Every structure is written in structure tokens, then in C-alpha cells.
Amino acid sequence: MSVPLRLDCTSRESTEQSLLAAFGCSVDNLWKFVRDPAHAAHSEEHGLHHLEFEPWFFKRACETLGMPRLPTELCLFHGTRVPEGTTCRRNLAARSFAAKASECHARDS
Questions:
Q1: Which residue has the higher pLDDT, 41 or 86?
Q2: Which residues, 6 or more positions from 80, have their beta carbon under 8 angstroms from its beta carbon?
């Protein structure tokens, strides 16, 4: 049985800790990736809108930091949570990044 992972984006600190736990990387590697100027350059070059940028950014994060563990609980910046006993896919279907990035297969399979 895997250890539960809460993706908590309610503050900068909780977001950092959640990403470190998910990717299992060092603080230095996480911030090196986040601050990479190639991300903004790619967005500007391709004129990507927010929803088009997120899948590209996630793929790049996986290539750089490794595949993350999937969260078992989500707490987004505005406090939205996935209710216990429901699936990520059902509750986050409108958020294409969440649906595409993880497919929530850990909870839905």
C-alpha cells in the first residue's frame, strides 16, 4: 500500500512541499526547473494559451524531474477538494490539465 499524497496548493510553501513529495526531487532541482527561461520562451514563441501550455509543461516536468506519484487528495489554491469516495476524473473533468496529466488512474482503476 502506497503512502497517501496530498497535493496542497493553498500556499507557496505547501505547493513546494507537495511537488517535492510527488516528484521525489531536491528543492534545487525543482526550482531550477520552475525558473527555466525556456518555459516562457516556448509559450511566447508558440503563442500558447494557458490550457495548451499546461500539458507541454507537465511533459517537460516529467522528462526533467521524473514521473510524479499521483495524489490521493487534492487541495487547490481556492480550497476546492475532491470529495472522499468520488473520483478525480468526475470532479476535475473540466480541468483538462488534471484530467490529461494524471488521468487519475490511481483512483479510477
A1: 41
A2: 74
